[in-house]
Amino acid sequence: MSIDPCAHCEEMMQPYLDHVLTDAERDEAEAHLAECEGCRRRYRFEESLRVYVRNAAAEQMRPELRQKLSSLRIPLE
Question: Would residue 35 count as lying in a domain?
C-alpha cells in the first residue's frame, strides 16, 4: 500500500514551516511542493496565516478596548 503524497505533505507542513525537518525531509517536502499545485496553495495559505497571526499578536490594543474588556471580567470565587 503506497502513501498518498499529499497526505504525507500535509503531515510535514507544520514541521516544514517550523524549520524542524531533517535535510532529507525538507528536500522531500520541497520536491512535492514543486510538483503539486494543491499543496503549494495550502503552503502559501499556512505561511500567510502565520504572518497574519504574528502581526495581529504584535498589534497594541487600544486603551479604550483594554478598559472595556477589563470591566467585563468576572471575579473568580
Answer: yes
